[in-house]
Amino acid sequence: MRRFAVSAVALATLTAGLATLPAVLQRANGQDAPNADAAKNNDLDLLQATWKFSYYEEKGEQQRPGTREFVISDKKLTYRSGGQDRIETTIEIDATKSPKHLTQTFPNGDVYRSIYVLADDYVILCGSRNKEKRPSKFSCATENGGEFLIFLKRE
Fold it and tell me: Residue 8 above 90 pLDDT?
């Protein structure tokens, strides 16, 4: 009975994976997904929440996540620490890229370029404070990585 249950789950997972194959192949060939605007809007909708830091790494050093959180509302990301709003940025996402892109623009004009992955109630964000550079890998303090790596959980 257990083997049947595992096989059913494996079959369902494989079927779901095959359904996304055309979009994956298009991206691999440098083409946008057929509904690029829909993908961007869908991810932006899914990101609307309060996200608590569950892991935080800065320049290769693990930091205490403490009470840090991001609140995403519309196209705004507010950084909170200790229950206090610290700064609000404007965000732009591109869910058609692989990995997906998130760009934050600060009131003073600073720009952070990040990559992210969204899975249910979790987000992994890896970014650079260099407005000219976006990481290509989810790692910190490496050549292709970012300056910060954050694991977030939906509150």
Answer: no
